[in-house]
Amino acid sequence: MLQSEGLNAVPESSFSQRRARLLGLLAHAKADALVFSHLPNIRYLTGFTGSNALLLASATGAVLYTDPRYEFQAAEEVDCKVTVARGDLWEVVIHGSRLRRVKVLGVEAEKMPHSSWQKVRTSLGGGVRLKDCSGMVEELRIVKSDKEIDIIRRSVALNSRAYEKTLRKIAPGMTEIEVVAELEYAMRRLGADGPAFETIVAVGARTALPHARPGHNRLKNNQLLLVDMGATLEGYASDMTRVVHLGRPGARAKVLYEAVLEAQLAAVQEVRPGIRCAEVDRAARNVLRRGKLDRYFTHSTGHGLGLEIHEAPRVGARVETVLEAGMVITIEPGVYIEDFGGVRIEDTVLVTEKGVEVLTPTTKEFLVLAT
Ligand code: ZN
Ligand code: ZN
């Protein structure tokens, strides 16, 4: 197995090892202690999967605060100290930080409602400074460990199987919502925790809405059908978009499909360690520009995913983040033409030492569903 060198060492995957890496950053941030409130970050650092918790971390150790509903769950999942408290967890954490004689307290301001920030500042009183330490754990999460990659790989495979199983059942007369129900049913039957986001199914001209809300529109012959779906498995997301045609596609649909596929393949080919996200985005945009379709490509080329469906890095036109082995991103260019329809093709890919591995196994051929 290949081992990466120097700074980009393979990230540790046990929770205590992750917290140990965090303490290095704590010194860098010049804070005495950090309070984490963003649940995916808490899960990453402790394993806790409940919906109410705060994590206080300092050089003297980490304490997870949660309420009595999660007492047993926390004992089972978490390998650091747990304090079960009633009422406002922030009050309890502030008390804890006072006991530790904290002078500078780091918080995740970007993920906190403004009202919480105000309240925390007031209860802390003078003598303690609040510091915004947003993004620290997100930075650790950006490169996945082998164990995380294994889970994402299985999440992607499960998602594709759910799609492929459902494709056989799709027929004119079904509504978009019925297709969503079938996809999510298949996903759960295959062992998913659930969908990673609201499944998108759009038919006909509605495929031109990049985030179409599925409705009661019925599938008809001679239409584009777009499915954008992702599963969550053991907390980790997958993400895929495919477009098929009900009945034989016309010339225009074929041209759009070919152009988007070419753009998607070009962007995938750019992915490797050392390349900037902006360059990957540009590869897709350049292909579409040749067909004068770039103005219909109205979003960025992709995004990182893991414990959240959208996480760093964003693969966009002005993103300078340099890809590293172990990052997992989507590549999903699309074109959207009002009153006609849209095509988006999305895979989940892994940045490897040598370049890229496309994790999504589903075919990108322009499938025709016989009607
Ligand atoms: Zn998607
Ligand atoms: Zn996506």
Task: Explain how this protein is built.
The protein is 35% helix and 22% strand. It contains ten helices and 20 strands. The chain has a six-stranded mixed beta sheet, with helices on both faces. A hairpin with a 6-residue loop joins strand 13 and strand 14. Helix 4 (89-99) packs parallel to helix 5 (114-124), helix 7 (146-167) crosses helix 8 and helix 9 runs antiparallel to helix 10. The structure holds zinc ion (2 copies). One zinc ion binds next to loops.
Spatial strand sequence of the major β-sheet = 4-3-2-1-5-6
Secondary-structure content class: alpha+beta
Bound molecules: zinc ion
Poorly predicted sequence stretches spanning 5 or more consecutive residues: 1-9
Distance between the termini: 48 Å
| Helix percent band | 25-40%
Please tell me the overall pLDDT. Answer: 93
SSE order in H/E notation? Answer: HEHEEHEHEHEHHHEEEEEEHHEEEEEEEE
Globular, elongated, flat, extended or rod-shaped: what is the shape? elongated
Query: How many β strands by DSSP?
Result: 20
Could you give a short account of the major beta sheet? 6 strands, mixed
List the total number of helices: 10
Computed over alpha carbons, the radius of gyration is 23 Å
